[in-house]
Amino acid sequence: MAPSVFLSHLLPLVRGSLCRKAPCPSRTAVRRSQFLSVEGNRVLAGTVDRFGGVTVDLTESGLPEDISEGAFGRLLGDSLVQWRAEGKVAVWLRVPISLSRCAAAASTHGFTFHHAKHDHAVLALWLGEGESRLPGFATHQVGVAGAVLDESNGKVLVVQDRNKTKNAWKFPGGLSDPGENIGATAVREVFEETGVRSEFRSLLSIRQQHCHPGAFGMSDMYVICRLSPLTHAINFCTRECLRCEWLDLAELTRTSDTTPITSRVARLLLHGLEQGFSEIDLSMEELPAVYSGRFYQLYHRQLPPTLKS
């Protein structure tokens, strides 16, 4: 399976009375920090964002590698005095694991952990008025499955997971990687689990579940896509799957050896096969994002040609 990934909040803006939230910084947005001298005190310098927050990356701060917890605590205390005087609303502190003792020092000044990834942790401190308006970090993980349907014979590709309490038929799938589109996840996971190559056609369903087992207390979004096969030969992964077959779609709708969501989507697919997939598909359209200059994927029922423009 793909490694676990979480889907983060959208991070809205701080705009005075609108009480919106300030964004969490990314490492790429951080310029090299230097020490500043303010009224005889050494003060950490960082990147100031347009919302009035300052980001300090300790990997780029010029700190001595052997700095003590106490010495860093004093330096951070002097910095906070300066930032408050300048009216900064928040501080984001990126701490590499090699300087984890600095996190302990920061906690004495009110910093709390915001998130951790691989070799660093990010701590945050709200300096503005009232309750913190800083965003939380991850709340969801995204799982994607691919229902590979052969329209020529009405068969669909299904697997039974290994090491499950109930070996029920289900569509192959796994967790989406960071920066990976839903359709790409479905195609990749189907190939990794079954050896069958396929192409994305549409989105069929989304399930939301909270406190999902194995998701570290987070919520889970589970997406099922409709795929078309490019190959048919099965070479399934024996580490993850106990069985893999092309199963008659009508049989999948009737069998008790499946999961409730698989059974429901199988009936949805059967309806599409009989009545036309325009009745069930949420197709994907790529559109330009207004602010970032990038593109995003929008999933929706097809519009009549006269309404597209």
TrEMBL record:
Pfam families: NUDIX, Nudix_hydro. GO terms for cellular component: mitochondrion; nucleus. One of its GO terms (molecular function) is ADP-ribose diphosphatase activity. It is found in: Cytoplasm; Nucleus; Mitochondrion. Its EC number is 3.6.1.-. Keywords: Cytoplasm, Hydrolase, Mitochondrion, Nucleus, Signal. Residues 1-16 form the signal peptide. Its main location: cytoplasm. It comes from the Eukaryota. Residues 139-271 form the Nudix hydrolase domain. Belongs to the Nudix hydrolase family. Monomer and homodimer. May contribute to the regulation of cell proliferation. This is Nucleoside diphosphate-linked moiety X motif 6. It comes from Channa striata.
